[in-house]
Specification:
Largest sheet: none
Strand content: under 5%
Number of domains: 1
Distance between the termini: 37 Å
Structural class: mainly alpha
């Protein structure tokens, strides 16, 4: 499977659009300082943090992680899993969940172009045109628009955002669960790709360099200057799939479908953050990657509970 059948959904709008919620630049930092009356010491703190993240973003380890991410997002199992989840969820999916699955299909329309973008490889003219169209279509997607609004709201909720940062920091000390998926080859492939990435030495390296920076007092205000799609990457994926496009009553979904939706929400959020950051700010890119991959780790926990329930909390399957 190279391209998802476009008859399955509305496809790409024409034109070249940037994905919503552009990333902060140093000029953006200056505006934030002026608005908040920050002093020169705060500005230096921001600049130092930005420089440290830039160094991580340009490191061989980050490039290796981007290549591994490219393999994950270009695996034909990813759109196949989105399609099978659409079919299994049917009318019980909320509007947000339906749009989220649509976004996954749009993202993976041209796997080679997406892989090159995520890996940081120069695009051909045709690939560049395709990715611009994909960004434009994603900007029109209701789930992506809802995530952007959620990220913008989260910026103004300092205590909530700090709690989300703390959860990401805590999850960084966890290992990827060993999950034996049966009866769903697409899910098995996506879980395997995610586990390989999480267990890689390259991700361990950039995680070890980035997480201590997340623990500094300056990280919260720094994060609040970033794109809403970078910020919403710190929202737990289980909360993302509960977002609504309008007031509605959520129909019941089976535990496996919820787990898959949570995993796809984590991956889609990660890809959206990368697409928003590429070519704009390497510092924000590395923050988005680390938070996004750790969101995938959190989502894998839900999949693990389906295939290996631990009712007594002793770490073993019951």
């Amino acid at each position: 499977m190279n391209k998802v059948d476009t008859s399955r959904r509305r496809f790409l709008v024409t034109g070249s659009l940037a994905l919503g919620g552009g990333l902060a630049t140093m000029a953006g930092f200056d505006k934030a300082f002026a608005k908040n009356g920050a002093n020169n010491g705060t500005a230096r703190q921001f600049n130092t943090l930005n420089d440290q993240l830039l160094a991580i973003g340009g490191s061989p380890a980050t490039m290796a992680v981007r290549q591994q991410l490219a393999r994950l997002v270009s695996d034909p199992a990813l759109p196949a899993l989105a399609i099978s989840t659409q079919q299994a969820g049917g009318a019980n999916l909320t509007g947000f969940q339906t749009a989220l699955l649509e976004a996954v299909l749009v993202m993976t329309y041209d796997p080679a172009a997406l892989a090159a973008t995520v890996a940081g490889v120069p695009l051909t003219k045709a690939q560049d045109k395709t990715m611009n169209r994909i960004r434009g279509t994603l900007q029109e997607n209701p789930a992506i628009q809802r995530l952007i609004r959620a990220g913008a709201t989260l910026k103004g909720q300092r205590s909530v955002l700090q709690n989300d940062i703390s959860q990401v920091i805590t999850s960084s000390g966890q290992s990827a669960p060993s999950i034996a998926v049966t009866g769903n080859s697409a899910l098995a492939a996506v879980v395997n790709d995610s586990t390989v990435l999480l267990n890689s030495s390259a991700f361990g390296t950039i995680k070890a360099a980035t997480v201590p920076l997340m623990q500094t007092p300056g990280f919260l205000p720094y994060l609040r200057t970033q794109s809403p799609l970078t910020v919403v990457g710190f929202m737990p994926p289980s909360e993302r799939i509960a977002l609504e496009l309008a007031h509605q009553v959520d129909p019941p979904l089976g535990q496996l479908i919820v787990a898959i939706l949570t995993l796809l929400a984590a991956i889609a959020g990660l890809v959206a953050a990368i697409l928003a950051a590429v070519g704009a700010a390497a510092a924000a890119l590395v923050v988005g990657i680390v938070a996004g991959v750790l969101a995938v780790l959190a989502a894998l926990g839900g999949v693990g509970l389906v295939y290996c329930p631990d009712f007594d909390g002793d770490g073993d399957c019951d």
